[in-house]
Amino acid sequence: MYHLFVCTCMHCSFNFMCSCLAPGNKFSLFILSCCRLCPGWKNFMIEFGKYEIQTWYSSPYPQEYARLPKLYLCEFCLKYMKSKNILLRHSKKCGWFHPPANEIYRRNDLSVFEVDGNVSKIYCQNLCLLAKLFLDHKTLYYDVEPFLFYVLTKNDEKGCHLVGYFSKEKLCQQKYNVSCIMIMPQYQRQGFGRFLIDFSYLLSRREGQAGSPEKPLSDLGRLSYLAYWKSVILEYLNCHHEKQISIKGMSRATGMCPHDIATTLQQHSMIDKREDRSVNLVKKFLKYQDKTVTFST
Ligand SMILES: [Zn+2]
């Protein structure tokens, strides 16, 4: 038995064969990502539209691109290139000014496009590679066909600029309504993450099916979801004046799955438990006091 360790990080060529090598014996291949251990990733940049962006994590771009200090991306078709000159030549003939799909939402200068991974495979693969630069864990890069990608853009006279996206499995047995969600660094902390989360629940409500994001969530994702869930629950409680409300009813109205609602109520200490499976909401969270929440089975 011998072990070959190969790093998938794009900045180093970590390729280690352990000393227990015995030719002809069994062989185990370990794919690793040294990621934060590798000094190279810290210096990796992408040029994207008018932005030059420092990347956060490694992404499995092909080796000949991965070794470069900087990648040049077309901000519309997401094709990656080795030099500014190639990008300039590409831009003249690209002809894309928005994601390759139907626009399903527009308000002011924001649009959402629903891109089918089966129809626009290369675009979706490039989107996944780009997203991985800003996500600590993500496994989907190439098998994009079973997914829809909801791409949020900010529009001006030059075109529809990528703000972020979430992907969603077309047929998901676990009822996940978001597989992966990412906001480009230049658009973070401006409410776009919340917008996309809200949009994913809007789709769930339209499907008549409560949803939940795929686990595990990234650190940033967990914080965003907890804040979102809490605000939606508070809004619901303040709009519903009945003395008794059920988690099932909240789930129907919000598209959030009952488990996420219950977890949020507990994590924010919003409820006092009783022995009879019903709970009282903590009064400070209510305009209208003495409300009881029941856990519907
Ligand atoms: Zn292009």
TrEMBL record:
Localization annotation: Nucleus
Gene Ontology MF: a single term: zinc ion binding
The EC number(s) this enzyme carries: 2.3.1.48
A single GO BP: regulation of transcription by RNA polymerase II
Domain of life: Eukaryota
Name of a matching Pfam family: zf-MYST
KW Nucleus (keyword) present: yes
Family annotation (InterPro entries): Acyl_CoA_acyltransferase, HAT_MYST-type, MYST_HAT, WH-like_DNA-bd_sf, Zf-MYST
A GO cellular component entry from the record: MOZ/MORF histone acetyltransferase complex
CDD domains: NAT_SF
Active site feature: 214 (proton donor/acceptor)
MYST-type HAT domain location: 38-290
Broad enzyme group: transferase
Primary location: nucleus
UniProt keyword annotations, A-Z: Acetylation, Acyltransferase, Chromatin regulator, Metal-binding, Nucleus, Transferase, Zinc, Zinc-finger
Family: Belongs to the MYST (SAS/MOZ) family.
Xref: PANTHER family: HISTONE ACETYLTRANSFERASE, HISTONE ACETYLTRANSFERASE KAT6B
Protein name: histone acetyltransferase
Protein's organism: Strix occidentalis caurina (northern spotted owl)
Lineage, top ranks: Eukaryota, Metazoa, Chordata, Craniata, Vertebrata
